Amino acid sequence: VKDKKKFLCTAITVCGIILPIVAMSPFLGDRGYWFFIIGISLWNIPYICYTVSWQSYFSDLYPANKRAMPYAMRQMMTNAVPVVTIMGGSLILSYLCKTQPQKILAYQIFYMIAFAASIFQRIAISRTQCPPREHAQRSNSSAPLKEFISAIRDLKKHPQFCIFLVLLFVFYFSWQCAWPMFFLYLIREVGFN
Fold first, then answer.
1. Of 102-106, 135-139, 181-185, which range is least confident?
2. How confident is the model at residue 145 (pLDDT cuts 50, 70, 90)?
3. Measuring CA to CA, which residue among 38, 30, 193, 48 is closest to residue 107?
4. Fewest CB within a 10 Å sphere: which of 9, 17, 70, 157?
5. What single DSSP character describes residue 190?
6. pLDDT value of residue 127
């Protein structure tokens, strides 16, 4: 990707735009479930692009000898904010929202807040300035799809990284498979919602 900031901002914007669209799923009646599932599935595509491009952009934003503290702060916030958000959201859904329509409205408001946060995040990222890189290697290819395919082909040259990717997939797949069971436990056994 030639312009990492533009790519990152685009990924943030697409993620943000999909959320209020998904929030309209209750208005679609019986088709709303599929609309919601497909919408969130599609949301994951720009979100994955965002997470990968953010790491790359961050590497350009701070010199190697000054990355530790900003990265540590970002990681700390990345872990703290979801905990506070989930606790706050669950308290709102459990104690303030008494009926199903109120809970649906609360979820729609959460998605709109996430959309607003994505706008602010895009503004914050667009205001950052990366210092010029001294030894930046520029690809001669102007087609991102060709670069992507070339990178996939080059994976054969790095078997240890391929093993890492497989293990990463297994880890995240198994982690995500556990969430429905946790959800069922919270609903049936603990009595949430």
1. 135-139
2. confident
3. 193
4. 157
5. I
6. 92
Q: Are 39 and 124 in contact (CB under 8 A)?
A: no
Tell me what pLDDT residue 132 has. 65
Give me the torsion for CA of 176, 50, 92, 113, rounded to 10°. -160
Type of residue numbered 118: S
- 21 with 112: CB under 8 angstroms? no
Between the two ends of the chain, the Cα-to-Cα distance in Å is 44
Residue 137 tokens, joined:
């290697």
**Calpha distance 162→164 (Å, rounded):** 5
Alpha carbon distance 157, 173 (integer Å) = 25
Task: Give the mean pLDDT of 63-79.
Answer: 83
Beta-carbon contacts of residue 139 (< 8 Å; ≥ 6 apart): 2, 147
Residues shown for the chain: 193
In angstroms, the CA 119 to CA 109 distance is 15
Give the Cα separation of 9 and 5 in Å (integer). Answer: 6
Q: Residue for token digits 């049936």?
A: 188
pTM > 0.85: yes or no = no
Local structure of 130: helix, strand or coil: coil
